[in-house]
């Protein structure tokens, strides 16, 4: 289920963890409200903040090391036959049926619908979304919801950290003196603000795509994807409505046979 922590991406993960705890330490060492509360014995917020940072780090490692849905055996024929009956297949035009029965040109395994081969991971991934260099792992069927949850927690940590940084700036009579006393905190504040914006945009885009039941890969490359390029610009055969899309994404922990969803939609149109 999990990859080797010392494998590919070790430096990225190490840098992420070091940066996280260095920023946290700076927020405690400067004269911020976090340090004032700690000095006065008001430990509720400092402890909660540290625990939230720890949760974000643990989620980061979980998403980074988790199997995103690698296809390791040639079992898609079995899944395809279980998901779509022969009668349903006969209702679909030959061009639509044949485009599903494809093999990956790299790992030579049959690909279930919505899967894609990742050149970096060297595996086909079920319900492939994208390869994220931040976590050095693919985001796919098994870890996508955890990736979104990680973004939520990380955004809360960053916004809280930005608020804490803003409370630590001290007054000085000149810019030179101000930079001497606040320079490190200013750099941390700018870094946290930039990361907050990036995470906010990432989270917003993923929630939008999830509400449509589409992936980043499908959204960006639908004109090149065999099962989508014949659909209209606003047509998505996997869209079951916003509520059902969100419910299925966050609450359905089983493997979805997307051929069944797709062919049911196409059958209704034939």
3D structure, described in words:
58% of the residues lie in helices and 5% in strands. It contains eleven helices and five strands; from the N terminus they run αααβαααββββααααα. The protein has helices spanning 10-29, 33-39, 44-65, 76-83, 86-90, 94-98, 144-166, 175-212, 216-221, 242-251, 258-269, and strands spanning 70-71, 116-118, 123-125, 130-132, 137-139. Strand 2 and strand 3 (123-125) form a beta hairpin. The chain is elongated, with a radius of gyration of 23 Å.
Topology:
Elements: H1 10-29, H2 33-39, H3 44-65, E1 70-71, H4 76-83, H5 86-90, H6 94-98, E2 116-118, E3 123-125, E4 130-132, E5 137-139, H7 144-166, H8 175-212, H9 216-221, H10 242-251, H11 258-269
Antiparallel strand pairs: 1-3, 2-3, 4-5
Helix pairs in contact: 1-3, 3-7, 7-8
Q: Mind describing the biggest β-sheet?
A: 3 strands, antiparallel
Beta strand %: 5-15%
- Helix- and strand-based class? mainly alpha
**Through-space gap between termini:** 40 Å
Please tell me how large the radius of gyration is: 23 Å
Main attributes of the structure:
270 residues, two-stranded antiparallel ribbon
TL;DR?
By secondary structure, the protein is mainly alpha-helical. It has helices spanning 10-29, 33-39, 44-65, 76-83, 86-90, 94-98, 144-166, 175-212, 216-221, 242-251, 258-269; strands at 70-71, 116-118, 123-125, 130-132, 137-139. The strands form 2 sheets. A 3-stranded antiparallel sheet has the order 1-3-2, with no helix packed on it. The chain has a two-stranded antiparallel ribbon with strand order 4-5.
